[in-house]
TrEMBL record:
This is Flagellar hook protein FlgE. SUPFAM superfamilies: Flagellar hook protein flgE. Residues 345-386 form the Flagellar basal-body/hook protein C-terminal domain. It is found in: Bacterial flagellum basal body. GO terms for biological process: bacterial-type flagellum-dependent swarming motility. Keywords: Bacterial flagellum, Cell projection, Cilium, Flagellum. A flexible structure which links the flagellar filament to the drive apparatus in the basal body. One of its GO terms (cellular component) is cytosol. It comes from Roseateles toxinivorans. Residues 87-126 form the Flagellar hook protein FlgE/F/G-like D1 domain. Residues 7-35 form the Flagellar basal body rod protein N-terminal domain.
């Protein structure tokens, strides 16, 4: 009967742990990246204990509890709209390096750039790991990427009609940029060389009143002649290095007779000013994409993903993170390669806890706890009756 009490107490302890695990699962049903767990039960006869008596081996000694097993099924993906919220659609875990230098893994992709420009996990500031060109792990940061350097203009395009019946034409506000991003408003003075050279125009490029270059363009039947529709000059802004400029009077320019009315005008140039960082995001392959205020873009490192040969190679370490168990080694790679999943920017993977299953398990654990309690109560009553019989 004393053994019965011990068996009942083992059941109470085991089912109490089971209820604790279910309670933890249920309380984390809305936690991003959380993976539900199940408590492993075993018959105490087969627990390998050397202290079991022959009687216990014959009739059993109750239940034993082992570690929990994690369920790595994917949870629901929910849209957040945040550029640095990421979910993995398929296999893989994000790789983190915590402040102690330990490697951790997670499915909760809630990231941000800290004050130093390093991509970190929003919860504990662990550094999110990426892969360099050689496939080596390292932090993802914005070093050298916060500003887009300016680029000097090298090509200037024009559009409109240059009246073939006019004798001269002036084009103002031809804006070009130097290597420092400074703007310079040039102007053109076009002089017809007809009738001596029909369709030929002498072009003078002016910076204020200073001529900085000249050239000739040629039209035939109102269209620019191939090889004679560009003027190349070397323009040297004050205080800046000399910059080559190509003035392009190509397919957008014509020269038909329209009296003295010309619509020739500056169309575009290919330089840009310095730009500040305006948006940071990751694409579906995990490549860092940066947008700047000047319309330019840049690419950074690619996010690293990891996976293991089996789920048993991972164990929970808290904060929705996992660590390798024992000597298990992770296979690393970028998204969309080698069996790894696709990243979903602007989404977060939520808990995979199924509330209906948890409630079903809770009923089972509760019944088991009640039954174990009844065993203890019954065994106690039997002992009391035995003492009463001995007293008589």
């Amino acid at each position: 009967m004393l053994d019965s009490i011990s068996i009942g107490m083992a059941g109470l302890a085991g089912f109490s742990k089971g209820i604790k695990v279910i309670g933890n699962n249920t309380s984390n049903m809305n936690t991003p990246g959380f993976k539900g767990a199940r408590l492993q039960f075993g018959n105490m006869v087969f627990a390998g204990s050397q202290s079991l008596t022959a009687d216990a081996s014959r009739y059993g000694a109750g239940i034993n509890t082992y570690s929990t097993s994690l369920n790595f099924e994917a949870g629901d993906l929910r849209q957040t709209g945040a550029n640095l919220d990421l979910a993995i659609d398929g296999l893989g875990l994000f790789v983190l390096k915590n402040l102690a230098g330990e490697t951790r893994y997670t499915r909760a992709g809630q990231f941000e750039f800290d004050a130093k420009g390093v991509l970190v996990n929003r919860n504990d500031k662990s550094a999110v790991q990426g892969l360099d060109a050689d496939g080596r792990l390292g932090s993802i940061d914005l070093s050298g990427l916060r500003v887009s350097a300016p680029r000097a203009s090298s090509n200037v395009a024009f559009k409109g009609n240059l009246s073939s019946s006019a004798t001269d034409q002036t084009v103002s506000n031809v804006n070009v940029l130097d290597a420092a991003g400074g703007n310079h408003a040039l102007s053109l003075k076009l002089t017809s060389e007809s009738p001596a050279k029909p369709g030929s125009w002498l072009v003078s490029v002016l910076d204020g009143s200073t001529e900085v270059g000249t050239g000739t363009i040629l039209f035939k039947d109102g269209l620019p002649v191939a090889g004679s529709s560009e003027i190349k000059i070397n323009y040297k802004p004050i205080g800046q290095a000399e910059m080559p400029l190509t003035l392009n009077f190509g397919t957008e320019v014509t020269s038909y007779a329209t009296g003295n009315l010309s619509t020739l005008a500056f169309a575009s140039q290919n330089g840009f000013q310095a730009g500040s960082l305006s948006k940071v995001s990751f694409d579906a392959a995990g490549l860092l994409s940066i947008e700047y205020s000047n319309g330019q873009t840049a690419k950074g490192k690619r996010l690293a993903l990891a996976r293991f040969a089996s789920d048993e190679a991972l164990e929970a370490s808290g904060d929705n993170q996992f660590q390798a168990s024992g000597s298990a080694e992770a296979q690393l790679g970028p998204a969309q390669t080698g069996g790894f999943g696709t990243l979903r920017p602007g989404y977060i993977e939520f808990s995979n806890v199924d509330l209906s299953k948890e409630f079903g398990e809770l009923v089972i654990m509760q019944r088991g706890y009640q039954a174990s309690s009844q065993i203890v109560s019954t065994a106690n009553e039997m002992i009391e009756q035995l003492f009463a019989m001995r007293g008589k």
